[in-house]
Amino acid sequence: MGEDDMASTELDLSTITAAVVQENSGQIAIGKYVVQIGSIHGGVVNVAMPEEQAHWQPRLTPVLLRPRRFTGLLDRQVETGAAMAAVQTTQPLALCGSPGLGKTSLLRHLAYHLPLTACADGVIFLSAQQHALADLLQFLFEAFHESNIPAKATEAQIRHGLQNKQALILLDDIGLERTEVEALLDTAPNCAFILTSPERCLWGEGRVLALHGLPRDDALTLIEREMARPLTPDELSAVLTLCDLLAGHPLRLIQVAALARDHGYSLAEITRQIQQAVPAESLNKQLLNQLSPPERRVLGTLALFGGAPLGHDHLAALTGLPDPTPVVEALIERKLVQAHSPRYSLTGDLAQRWPSAWDLTPLAERALTYFAGWAEQSQAAPDHLLEEMGAIRRLLAWGVEAKRWPETFRLARAIEGTLSLGGRWDAWAEVLQHGLQAATGLGDRAAKAWVWHQLGTRALCLDDHVTAQTALSRALRMRETLGDFAGAEITRHNLNLLIGPLPPPQSPSSPPPANGITGTPWTLFGLLGVSIILLLILIGWLGSAWLPPFNQPEVKLTGAATPTSLLQIVSLSTATFTPIPPVVTTPPAPPTLTPLPPTPTATPSPSASPTVIATASSTPTSTPTFTPIPTATPSPTFTLIPSPTPTASPTATPRPIAFLTPQDLNFGSVRVAETSRTATVSVINTGGGLLTINNITLEGENPGDFLFDSGVCLSRSGFSANMSCTVSVRFRPTAARDRRARLTFFTNSLDSPHSIFLSGFGQGDPAINLNPDTVDFGEQPLNSTTEPRSITLTNVGQGDLRVSRVELGGANVDDFTFEEVCTDFLMLPGDACVITVRFTPRSTSLRTAELILTDNAPNSPQRLPLRGVGLVTLPDLVITALDSTGLPQINGQGQVEAPIRMVVRNQGNAEAGIFKVSTDYTDPTGGTFAVAFTVPGQNSLWYPFTAAPLPAGGEIAFEGWVTFLPSLQGQIVSLAGLADSCSGDERMPAICRVEESQENNNQSAPLSLTLPRAPIIQ
Questions:
Q1: Which pLDDT value is given to residue 938?
Q2: How far is CA 114 from the centre of its chain?
Q3: In sequence order, what E strands does 732-887 have?
Q4: Which residues contact 671 (CB under 8 A, 6 or more apart)?
Q5: Which is it for the CA torsion 718, 720, 721, 723, positive or negative?
């Protein structure tokens, strides 16, 4: 590469800085630095001018940052007393216990009910979940101080600012380690701290109380309050058992009350089911089994984020519900969800106890992709990003665990600037570490260089010099290797603030006179400059690992030995090579520096000339000699004397550098088995020499889902500097969901191999399974409605299903009705919903219709046949019992009276009008004769009748006696009953019988009677 070529690659730092400033989304001051955030190359650190430095001013006190007031606190007298003592003595109090025991409610109560005479500076409440120590301290400092510009306080400023504050600090759900808690307390030693946590977090000084469940009386009060009524005596026994089973756990008790109130379960039944297994797990199972599909989707989405609240709009987007408000409100009523208007989270430990059988992976993948896109579009609204930061950070952690590298890196990069500008630098470091893991998983060296730059920039501002130097040096090495000159300049700029800039390159001047240069100032400064350069070269040889790496071309010394030669020292940089003025050299000798005593003559004395020798390489081929020349002044002077040495001429061996663009390809959503558009990857030789591409391979999780055409990249022998070739890539998913692979290039570049990440989403088709696939209601009386029949709709395909409409079609749509929860509900593969159908025939004979579902499945619409038969509503009277109720007796007229009981049932589908019954008998001769049946209270002696219509399914009993003629004494007769009889007409209308569905089943089974004989009187 010639000198002109080198010059063409020089970068103007001022131009880069101007571009970076234009890209910035903001800046934040910290200590002596100001950091510009938002450039694609990373943060830029500068020493702050006085007007750029933060000026912190104390806020007016008392500062009152209280939560909502909590009313109706039950029990907790011991804890309240301990809190009062903590305020008076400024000794910390820690309250620990499992989720749902009421720790937050207690803090909300204490925030308004503790004496504050010892806390003149105010009350601060903070939900400390996910907050690291430094971010907590920053929050507390900002609670009492304000800055004129966006700023992060230094550790010293925080310690000074909180040292003498006297305030009540309430930190809920803290997650710090023991040493971190001690550091927190030491930073604000005059504040009264009350901390809550699931596990113990305080040792040594202070008091620790473990929260337990409520006593029985308070537990009963809590349940009655939730049910909005007093308990009945039967419920009281069940509740006392519940209190023991659930150990008085407040949240679980009110969940039981809500279950009984909203779903109609008795407290006794709930108690019985809970007793069958581990109480807490059994209760969770009962609660979740009551969920509808939309409710299950809402709870599952919130479970992704643990206890972190999620905004209403995001919940709607992730669940596919246009308005999740009714669903969420129902879940709030059941104490499964809590509101942080307008945000929501799960209550208690429901997220930790989420059933393993309910796989949340599809929901998590959708959420990660959604938030990556939303965060990228919302970087101009950092307040919105900070509101969702708890949920986003949990999602990032899941992305790393699940190795969803592309979306994880996108999300990390989209939010890290907001955290840095917001002063949450511990969270910033956590997000950058997630980004580094994702970049490593992607094999994206440019992304890794960016993360290392950001980590080093953060450490630089925090005065963590070791971490800063390590991270920035790595970033610089990677960026120079990749040919990212603009990024390398920014990294070098930040690194120079740490270790100081390298000597500026010097322009060559006219060669020195042959007999040397005289004059004290020039020679002294010349000697000093040469010494610094030689010292830097020596450090480069001995400690190259310490200095930041440069893309350093190989330097060779060539040329034969001549009486006089020049050693040119080359200042190396990725952007420019500037030769330093030649220095006269002499043969090797031990390095010495001995000044001559001053003399009044200006004539050099060769015999008295001392020599300074510096070795230019590990093999001492030439050494510069410096001979001082005495002058008329009393100070010694020095002259550079040429000596016969070989000429050292540096030549850089050009090395190829492979640069791939773009660094990743995302093909978006493509239907399974279809082929995407063609995308291209360019391989550019940004170095010198000939770049050879030896092989290109597909690797990773789903290499079979991507196709590539290497073009001329493999067929050509190589590519010289600034030349490139193109590889065509396509995506053809073989299955649904996310598909990933790496396209890896093996070259003769020093940093080979290079990979770009390929990703795409296989859009599988949804498929509907309806179970059952037809519904037959059978026969149903006219205008009566059947019990509901359930149809389960399941998405058995590979894509997401959305049912847009459910309707009835066919011949008899008015005879069928349905209820459904399947429309406007995004159903992932495996999701199911239920449709219920009822049949009410409006006419006789066969009735048919179709349940029609319009959806995004390929065979839409789906049609499910419905059928039923409408029956005319008629009664059907049958005698179900004819029994003897006593022994037959002979009356005074010689007649035989036999007591009987007849039961008639209407087994038809309509009521029977007024009807009568009759009896007859068959004598031994085979004759059949009517016999009187008398029922007390009726005027009829022969044929009892009903006083009112008999409804369908109803029964009526006739109890009385039948009267046989005296001639039948001593005979055995067969008695039978007849319902809906026409015998006689004295009490019946002209049309004596009711219309029945069956006319031939009115007669009873025979009853055999042995009639007595009167004794013969002699």
A1: 79
A2: 38
A3: 737-747, 754-763, 768-771, 775-781, 789-795, 801-809, 816-820, 826-827, 832-839, 845-855, 862-871, 877-884
A4: 733, 762, 763, 764, 765
A5: negative
Is residue 377 within 8 Å of 371, Cβ to Cβ? no
The two three-digit tokens of residue 265, written as one number: 């379960």
Residues 6+ apart with CB under 8 A from 357: none
* Structure token digits, residue 885: 């109720």
CB 471 within 8 A of CB 456: yes
Strand order in the sheet with 775-781: 775-781, 862-871, 845-855, 801-809, 826-827
Question: How many angstroms separate the CA atoms of 178 and 192, rounded?
Answer: 18
The count of other CB atoms within 10 Å of the CB of residue 639 is 21
Angle at 469 between CA 465 and CA 472, to 5 degrees: 130
φ/ψ of residue 677, rounded to 5: -60, 165
Residues facing residue 169 across a β-bridge: 124, 193
pLDDT for residue 983: 64
- Rounded to 5 degrees, what are φ and ψ at 846? -70, 135
What single-letter amino acid sits at 315?
L
Neighbours of 785 (CB within 10 A): 12
Q: What's residue 593's pLDDT?
A: 37
Using alpha carbons, list the distances in angstroms from residue 421 to 49, 461, 465. 19, 13, 21
Q: Cβ of 597: how many Cβ atoms within 10 Å?
A: 8
527-533 long-range contacts (CB < 8 A, ≥24 apart) are: 527/612, 527/626, 527/638, 530/583, 530/614, 530/624, 530/626, 532/503, 533/503, 533/569, 533/580
CA-CA distance, 759 to 410, in Å (whole number)?
13
Which run of H or E residues covers position 241? helix 233-245
Exposure b/e, 90-105, CB count within 10 A at least 16 = b = bebbbbbbbbbbbbbb
CA dist list (Å): 310 to 313, 325, 811: 9, 13, 48
981 close to 886: Cβ distance less than 8 angstroms:
no
Q: Is the dihedral of CA 297, 301, 306, 312 positive or negative?
A: negative
Exposure string over 51-64, b if 16+ CB within 10 A, otherwise e: eebbebeeeeeebe
Burial of 653 (0-12, 13-18, 19+ CB in 10 A): exposed
pLDDT at 531: 56
Measured over all CA atoms, what is the biggest interatomic distance in the chain, rounded to whole angstroms?
A: 194
Question: What are the residue ranges in the chain where pLDDT is below 70?
Answer: 1-25, 501-652, 982-992, 1016-1018
Structure tokens at 762: 């296989």
- The owner of tokens 């992932």 is 828
Residue with tokens 């008015």: 814
- Residue 395: CB atoms within 10 A of its CB come to 23
Are 868 and 841 in contact by the 8 Å Cβ rule? The answer is yes
Cβ atoms < 10 Å from Cβ of 383: 9
Task: Give the Cα separation of 1002 and 995 in Å (integer).
Answer: 12
For the stretch 401-413, pLDDT in tens is: 999 999 999 999 9
pLDDT confidence of residue 4: 37
Dist CA 203 CA 226 (whole Å): 37
The predicted-structure confidence for 494-519, as pLDDT tens digits, reads as follows 999 988 764 444 444 444 444 333 33
Single out the residue of 931, 956, 936 nearest to residue 880, CA to CA.
Answer: 956
Helix orientation angle between 312-319 and 361-377, rounded to the nearest 10 degrees: 130
The sign of the dihedral angle between the CA atoms of 157, 159, 161, 167 is: positive
- Those residues with Cβ within 8 angstroms of residue 521's Cβ, 6 or more apart along the chain or in another chain: none
**Under 8 Å CB-to-CB from 86, ≥6 apart: which residues?**
92, 93, 192, 193, 194, 206, 207
d(Cα 826, Cα 267) in Å, to the nearest integer? 35
